[in-house]
Amino acid sequence: MDEIGRLERLREEVPLPRPEELDPERGRLHAAIAAAPPRTAPRRPYPLGFGLRGLGLKVALATGVAAAVTVPLIMTGGDPAIETFTPDRVRLSAAQVLDLAAETASREEELNPRPEQYVYTESQTMYGSFAMTVDENAKANSSSGPGGQSRYLYRTERRIWLSADRSRLGALMIKHLEPRPYPGWPLPAHAKDDVGQVERLPLDDCGRKGPDWSRTDAVYLRSLPTDPEAMREHLYSGQDGKEGADRDYAAWNRAREMLMETYLPPAQRSALFRAAGLIPGVQLVDRAEDAAGREGIAVAKIHQGVSEELLFDRLTYRFLGERAVVTDESQAKSPVGSLIASTAALKVEVADGLPDFAKGFVPGRQCTDVADGEAPPASND
To answer: What is the DSSP letter of 292?
Structure first.
C-alpha cells in the first residue's frame, strides 16, 4: 500500500470534507499568504513543535483530515529533541548561529586527554607568504610584485601531536600543497619549490611558558569556565593598555586560538561560542568555504580591512575552521572579497605517544629542559 493509502486508512471514521467546505478555507489561506509582507529582519529559527505542529493542527481542524508536512531540518548534535526549522529564506543573526554551534558542541563526546597523553589534530591551512627581494632587477621580473615584493598563498596539510599539558616536546608533519596566487599579485616562481615535500619536525610549544590567559594546552583549557559570561571575562583578560575596538578584537582573536590545533572540551567549547556572540561587532556571513572545500555559514569580526571568520557546518553547526576575507582594499592591499587565509579542522584525537618518526627528537624530554634557541635535530623526507 502506498503512503497516500496508509494516510487514508489512518482515520477512516473521519468523513472527507466536501469541496464547498474546503474552498473558503483555501481562499482565506491564499489571501493571508499574499498579504504577508516579506521578512527581512533576523529571526530565531522555529522550534519544530511551535512552528509546524501548530500549523498542522490548524490545517487538520479546518479540513477534517490529517496533514503531512515535509521540511528541511537542522539536526543539532543528533538529538531529535533539538530539531530546528531553518529554511533558506530565514536569515539568522551571528549570535543565533553561535548559539546553535554551542548546542551542537555541548552534545559532543568528551575526549578527556590525560596530562601524559598527546592531542593529535589534522588540518589543512592556507596563509600568506610575504617577502622582499634584494635583486635590483626584481622590479622588472614578471614573477614579482611592486618594488620587488613577492606575495603568495602557501597551502599545507598538517598533522600535529601536542603534549596535553605542553610539558613535553611534540611533533609536526607538514605536507606542502600547490600554492595559490595572492589576490592581485603574480605567483612567484619560487612558490612551488616545496610542493609535494613532507617535513617532520620537533615541536617545542610549551603552554606553561606564558601567563594563564594565553595558554591553549588541553589540560588547562579543561579548567576554564563553562558559563558564557565567565568565559567572556577570560577572553578579555590580560589586555592591559588596550581599549575599545582593540580589546574586542583581542578577545575575538583569543577565541580563535582556542579552537585550532588544540582540544577544548564540549562544555568549555559551548561556553566559548556563546561568549563570542557577546563580543561587539560580530557579524553574520551567509556563505563561506573552509580550506577543505566544505561549505558552511560563518560569523566574523572585521579588523584592519579583513573579515576574520569562524566557519560552521550549515546543517549541524559543527565547527569547520577559519578564513580571512578582504573587506577594505586600502587597508588590506588586495581587492575586496579576496580570500587571503583559510583553515579546515579535520580531526582531533587522543594519542598515547609520539609517532615513530619523532623518536629521534629525544622522546619524553621536558620542554623546560630545552634551552632557548636549542631544538633536537629535524627529520625531512
So the answer is: T
The C-alpha cell at 55 is 500549523
Apex 311 CA angle, 105 and 166, nearest 5:
65
Write the CA distances from 172 to 80, 156, 160, 272, 299, integer angstroms.
Answer: 39, 12, 4, 27, 29
Helix, strand and coil percent figures for the chain, each rounded to 5: 35, 25, 40
CA distance 47 to 49: 6
Angle, CA 279 vertex, CA 274 and CA 280 arms, to 5°: 140
Nine-digit cell string for 348:
582531533
In this prediction, residues 254-266 reach a mean pLDDT of 96
Above 80 in pLDDT, residue 350? yes
pLDDT band at 210 (very low <50, low <70, confident <90, very high): confident
Domain extents in the chain: 3-90, 102-380
Residues 219 and 113: their CA atoms lie apart, in Å, by: 7
pLDDT over 70, % of the chain: 66
321 and 260 Cβ atoms separated by less than 8 Å: yes
Note the pLDDT of residue 334: 85
Q: Can you tell me the distance from the alpha carbon of 298 to that of 317, in angstroms, rounded to the nearest whole number?
A: 10
Q: How far apart are CA 308 and CA 365, in angstroms?
A: 37
Contact between residue 69 and residue 52 where contact means Cβ atoms under 8 Å apart:
yes
**Going by C-beta distance under 8 Å and a sequence separation of 6 or more, which residues neighbour residue 114?**
164
Per-residue DSSP letter, 117:
S
Could you tell me which residues come within 8 angstroms of residue 299 by beta carbon, excluding any fewer than 6 positions away?
94, 97, 98, 276, 277, 282, 283, 284, 285, 309, 310, 312
Cβ-Cβ contacts under 8 Å for 302 (sequence gap 6 or more) = 281, 283, 308, 327
Adjacent-strand bridge partners of 380: 199
With a CB cutoff of 8 Å and minimum separation 6, the contacts of 306 are 324, 325, 326, 327, 328, 331, 332, 340
